[in-house]
Amino acid sequence: MTLAEAKQKLAQYGQEHVLKYYEELDAAGQEALLTQIGETDMSVLASCKHREELVKKGEITPLAAMELDEINANRKSFTSTGIKAIHDGKVGAVLLAGGMGTRLGSDNPKCMYNVGISRELYIFECLVNNMMDVVRQSGSWFHLFVMTSEKNNDTTIQFMQEKKFFGYNPEFVHFFKQEMAAATDYEGRIYLEEKGRLATSPNGNGGWFISMKNAGLLDLVKKEGIEWINVFAVDNVLQRIADPCFVGATIQRNCDVGAKVVRKNAPDEKVGVMCLEDGRPSIVEYYDLTQELMDARDEKGNPAYNFGVILNYLFRVSALEQLLDGNLPLHIVEKKIPCLDEAGELIKPQEPNGYKFESLVLDMIHQMGSCLPYEVERNREFAPIKNKTGIDSVESARALLRENGVEL
Ligand code: UTP
């Protein structure tokens, strides 16, 4: 893109300020900035001024979960179906590790966080330990695809290689990068993170399948005959990955997606809950859950919206492929964005200072024909690390790891 073209594009979107330091850059710096301006989607930025209108919900009705009693009664059969699928190479997993983990506030990628006390125990190590249970049980490795972003890709790969994947078979580990999006102040003006670089952040975890395709990994999925993909977050150190019973239940119920859920511990707990939206599976975020929905009861008299998602989904690959062109809704979230201040100095804010633009994997559920919410015991499978202390923190995850017999 030429300077004239860049100026024209920036004027169209009211972003001319990003050229403030253009004359100070060397030729390579100028070219890199113009390229970035050319590649950045600026059409979405103005929508931050009416962000509450972006994610409009349809009619919400309950979607029953498969509860523990039913799972236990069928455990043997589900597990043997799941083990067979894993053994036959039909199951793969995607680790969502592209996030910035700003709430945890560590400079390194989250997977490198050491939750150990008297020994080293990294988040990624906890996940591999859980995966190894399945490898032993099924007698076969399953493919792990790791999504990183431009910001943490090299550090993540280097760490995992140095640690020899904590014993996982490297031939079954593949990395791909997600896309980035511009980050702005509260007026939708793009921040600069360097004099010659727009501030960008990973564009949310919803783009994982497209990014995997763009990286050529869908060819591997096809070649290997992978029919199911278990997508999971990096920060739940207790979660079971490619859990045979969950895999078997989703296959036997013939659903396009299975979603691991936990029983809510309070009607207003801050988790997204499973529901139907206009008759299709969906997730209603806690801030959209009205008092009326919180009070609603099912025919047994239990809360009708009582199961929260934990970001562990099993997608049928053929259902995902039909969605490739379908757009996901945009979420505009407040975050801490490192940026240059008025004097051109880099600042790392302690409080949120603007918006990131993201698409979310939970919105993919609404695009699936059928979904099986599958209950898991929260104390056994849900220990997310979002913060340093308090709720969903290093502290709470350590307590839960101990409770499950993990030495720290
Ligand atoms: P979070 O919602 O916890 O976001 O991600 P985050 O960006 O990592 O953390 P905060 O909000 O800044 O503290 C849930 C999961 O989705 C992944 C994260 O790595 C985590 O596994 N994720 C999130 C991505 O892979 N890409 C993204 O763009 C965002």
Return Rg in Å.
22 Å
Share of β-strand residues: 15-25%
Average pLDDT: 95
- Cross-sheet strand order for the largest sheet: 4-3-2-9-13-10-18
**What is the number of domains?**
2
Small-molecule components bound:
uridine 5'-triphosphate
Q: In the CATH classification, which architecture of the largest domain applies? A: Alpha-Beta Complex
Question: In whole angstroms, how far apart are the ends?
Answer: 53 Å
CATH homologous superfamily placement of the largest domain: Spore Coat Polysaccharide Biosynthesis Protein SpsA, Chain A
CATH class of the largest domain: Alpha Beta
CATH-defined topology of the largest domain: Spore Coat Polysaccharide Biosynthesis Protein SpsA, Chain A
Tell me the structural class: alpha/beta
Helix content: 25-40%
Notes on the structure:
With 408 residues, the protein is of the alpha/beta class. It has 2 domains: 1-39, no CATH class; 40-403, Spore Coat Polysaccharide Biosynthesis Protein SpsA, Chain A, CATH 3.90.550.10. Helix content is 30%, strand content 20%. The protein is built from 13 helices and 18 strands. The chain has helices spanning 3-13, 27-39, 68-87, 123-138, 153-162, 208-214, 217-224, 244-252, 291-295, 317-321, 362-365, 378-381, 394-403; strands at residues 60-61, 91-96, 144-148, 173-177, 180-182, 192-194, 197-198, 200-202, 228-233, 257-263, 273-277, 280-284, 307-316, 331-335, 339-340, 346-347, 354-358, 371-375. The strands form 6 sheets. Strands 4-3-2-9-13-10-18 form a 7-stranded mixed β-sheet, sandwiched between helices. A 3-stranded antiparallel β-sheet has the order 1-11-12. A two-stranded antiparallel ribbon has the order 5-8. Helix 3 packs across helix 8. 41% of the residues are buried. Uridine 5'-triphosphate binds next to loops.
